[in-house]
Backbone:
C-alpha cells in the first residue's frame, strides 16, 4: 500500500487540506482573539480615564502641582495603569510613572501625541506606539476633561503591549494545541479512509495487470460491503468471460496459423492504411522479409515494389478484387501472381493479398514455346531438304547419273540427322521424366575416359586436332551409370572437337576434390561469349547456329549432359574465354 499512488494522492490531499484548514482557523481565531483582548484593554483604559476625568477635571491647571502628581500616582496604583494628566497646550501636569514632581516638570511637551491630538479635537483618542518616555510599546487611551462646557485638560491612560501580547500568546497556545490534536485525529482518520479506498483499488489494479499479462485465472475478493465489492464481482465475471473468449480466440488463431503456415501461397492482410496486419511464412519467403517484424509497418516500406502497391491501389479504387503479375527483380527475378481482395466493412483488415510464385511456371511456359518452335524448326530443316531432293529425283533427276547418287546421299544424310535428333529428344525426355532406368554403381573413370578417347581419336585426326588425356590421372571410381557417364563424355568430346580448329588441342583430365571426382574437357577452340554462358545447357541453344548446323549438331548434347549429371547427383559448369578455348567441368560423387 505504501507504493500505491492512489493512497498517497488521497492521504496527502486530505492531509494538506486539513493542515491548510487548521492554519487558517488558527490565524482567524488568533486575530479575532487579539482584537477582543485589545478591545477589552481599551475598555479598561477608557474606564480608568473616565474615573480620573471625573475626579480631577476641576483641578487641572496650566502647570504641574504636587496634588495632581500624588493623585495620579495613587490612582495609577489602584487601577494598575499609567495615568498622565496633560494641559491643553501639551504640558504634562502629572504622570503616575514618575516618582516626583521634578521628573514630571522635566518631561517633554505632549501636544503632538496622536491620542492627545485626537482627544483634544474629538473628545477621545487611542493610539498604539512605542513610548519615547518609557521606551516600550504602549496602548494609549486619552479623554478630554470638560468643565461647564469648556475644555480644562486631557487625561491619558496607558498599558504596556507586553501584557496584551502575553494574553494573546497564552490564548494562541491553547488554540494551537487544540488545532494540533484535532489535526492528528483527522490525519489518522484520513489514513484509515485512504487505506480502505486504496487497498481494494490496488488489488483490482494488480488483478487487471495479471489479466493484461495473460493470467485470466486471477480473481479479486473484497470483504467490505460497498461499491468496490460490486466492482470486484463484476471484474471477476469479466475475467471469466475474457478467459473463455481468449480460449476461443487462441483455438481459432491456432487453426488459422496452421492453415496459413501450411499454404504454399503467400497471404498478407493489410489495414486501411496499407499496414501489414498479418503475413504467413510463405509471404515472407516470397517477398524476402520476416513476417513478425513486418507487422504494423507499411507494405511499401517492407517490400520496395511499386507494382505491388499499385495492385492494392487498383483493388481499392475498383472496390473489388484485382489480379496481376508482379516482377520482383530485387529478390532473384521472381514473377508473382498477386490476387488483391478488398474486404468491405472490415475495420482492422481492409485488404487480403494472395501471392503465388509463378516464376517456374512462366519459365516452363517459355521453354515449352521455345521448345516447340525449336523442334519445329529442327525437324523442318531436314524434312524440307529430304522433300526437295525427293521432288527433284521424281522430276527426272533420278535418271541423271551424274547427280542422282549425290541427291540420294543427301537424303540419307538428312534422314540420319533427323533420326539422331529424334533419338536425342527421346533420350532427353526419358531422363527428364525419370523414366530411364540407370544401373547406378561404382564406375572406374579411367577406363571410360580411355575408351571414349579411342572412339574419337579418328575424328580428331581427321580434323587435325590433338585429343589427349591429362597427366597423372587418378584411378578413382564414381557412383553413377557407366553408359550415362560414357554418354556425358562422348557429348563433351564431340562438342569440343567440332569447335576446335585445326592444330588445336582437346584434353580430358581427372582429379579429386572434397569427396567428388572432377572430370574436365578442355579445348583450345573458338570459345563462348560471356553473356551466352548461362544458356549453353538449354535445349536447341547454339552459340553459332550456322556453324552448328554445318557441323551436324542437334543442339541437345549439352542439355543431355546437364540432366544426366544431375541424375547422378553431380553438377556441370562451363568456363570460357572468347578465342582462347572452353572447359567443361563435371563433378560426380566419389565412391
Residues:
Amino acid at each position: 500500500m505504501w507504493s500505491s499512488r492512489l493512497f498517497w494522492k488521497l492521504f496527502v490531499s486530505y492531509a494538506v487540506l486539513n493542515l491548510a484548514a487548521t492554519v487558517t482557523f488558527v490565524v482567524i481565531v488568533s486575530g479575532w482573539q487579539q482584537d477582543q483582548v485589545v478591545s477589552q484593554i481599551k475598555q479598561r483604559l477608557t474606564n480608568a480615564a473616565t474615573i480620573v476625568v471625573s475626579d480631577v477635571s476641576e483641578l487641572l491647571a496650566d502647570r504641574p502641582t504636587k496634588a495632581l502628581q500624588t493623585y495620579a500616582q495613587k490612582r495609577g496604583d489602584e487601577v494598575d495603569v499609567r495615568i498622565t494628566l496633560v494641559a491643553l497646550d501639551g504640558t504634562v501636569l502629572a504622570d503616575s510613572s514618575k516618582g516626583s514632581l521634578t521628573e514630571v516638570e522635566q518631561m517633554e511637551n505632549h501636544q503632538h501625541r496622536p491620542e492627545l491630538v485626537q482627544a483634544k479635537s474629538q473628545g477621545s483618542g487611542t493610539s498604539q506606539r512605542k513610548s519615547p518616555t518609557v521606551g516600550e510599546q504602549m496602548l494609549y487611551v486619552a479623554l478630554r476633561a470638560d468643565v461647564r462646557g469648556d475644555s480644562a485638560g486631557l487625561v491619558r491612560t496607558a498599558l504596556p503591549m507586553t501584557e496584551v501580547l502575553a494574553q494573546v500568546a497564552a490564548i494562541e497556545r491553547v488554540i494551537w494545541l487544540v488545532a494540533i490534536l484535532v489535526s492528528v485525529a483527522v490525519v489518522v482518520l484520513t489514513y484509515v479512509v485512504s487505506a480502505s479506498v486504496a487497498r481494494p483499488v490496488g488489488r483490482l489494479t494488480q488483478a487487471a495487470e495479471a489479466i493484461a499479462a495473460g493470467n485470466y485465472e486471477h480473481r479479486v475478493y473484497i470483504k467490505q460491503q460497498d461499491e468496490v465489492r460490486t466492482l470486484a464481482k463484476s471484474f471477476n465475471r469479466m475475467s471469466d468471460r475474457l478467459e473463455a473468449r481468449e480460449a476461443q480466440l487462441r483455438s481459432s488463431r491456432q487453426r488459422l496459423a496452421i492453415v496459413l503456415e501450411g499454404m504454399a501461397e503467400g497471404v498478407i492482410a493489410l489495414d486501411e492504411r496499407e499496414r501489414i496486419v498479418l503475413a504467413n511464412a510463405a509471404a515472407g519467403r516470397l517477398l524476402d522479409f520476416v513476417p513478425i517484424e513486418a507487422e504494423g509497418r507499411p507494405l511499401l516500406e517492407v517490400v520496395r515494389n511499386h507494382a505491388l502497391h499499385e495492385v492494392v491501389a487498383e483493388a481499392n479504387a475498383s472496390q473489388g478484387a484485382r489480379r496481376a503479375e508482379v516482377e520482383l527483380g530485387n529478390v532473384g527475378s521472381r514473377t508473382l501472381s498477386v490476387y488483391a481482395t478488398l474486404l468491405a466493412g472490415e475495420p482492422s483488415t481492409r485488404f487480403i493479398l494472395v501471392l503465388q510464385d509463378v516464376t517456374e511456371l512462366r519459365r516452363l511456359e517459355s521453354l515449352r514455346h521455345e521448345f516447340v518452335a525449336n523442334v519445329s524448326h529442327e525437324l523442318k530443316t531436314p524434312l524440307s531438304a529430304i522433300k526437295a531432293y525427293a521432288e527433284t529425283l521424281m522430276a527426272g533427276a533420278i535418271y541423271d547419273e551424274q547427280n542422282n547418287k549425290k541427291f540420294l546421299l543427301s537424303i540419307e544424310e538428312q534422314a540420319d540427322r533427323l533420326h539422331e535428333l529424334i533419338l536425342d529428344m527421346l533420350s532427353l525426355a526419358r531422363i527428364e521424366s525419370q523414366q530411364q532406368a540407370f544401373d547406378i554403381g561404382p564406375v572406374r573413370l579411367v577406363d571410360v575416359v580411355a575408351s571414349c578417347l579411342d572412339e574419337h581419336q579418328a575424328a580428331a585426326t581427321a580434323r587435325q586436332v590433338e585429343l589427349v588425356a591429362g597427366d597423372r590421372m587418378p584411378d578413382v571410381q564414381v557412383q553413377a551409370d557407366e553408359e550415362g557417364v560414357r554418354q556425358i563424355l562422348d557429348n563433351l568430346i564431340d562438342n569440343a572437337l567440332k569447335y576446335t580448329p585445326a592444330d588445336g588441342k582437346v584434353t580430358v583430365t581427372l582429379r579429386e576434390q572434397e569427396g567428388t571426382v572432377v572430370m574436365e574437357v578442355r579445348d583450345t577452340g573458338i570459345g563462348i561469349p560471356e553473356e551466352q554462358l548461362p544458356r549453353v545447357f538449354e535445349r536447341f541453344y547454339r552459340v553459332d547456329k550456322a556453324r552448328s548446323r554445318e557441323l551436324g549438331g542437334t543442339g541437345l548434347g549439352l542439355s543431355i549432359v546437364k540432366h544426366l549429371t544431375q541424375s547422378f547427383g553431380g553438377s556441370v559448369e562451363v568456363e570460357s574465354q572468347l578465342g582462347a578455348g572452353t572447359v567443361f567441368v563435371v563433378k560426380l560423387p566419389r565412391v
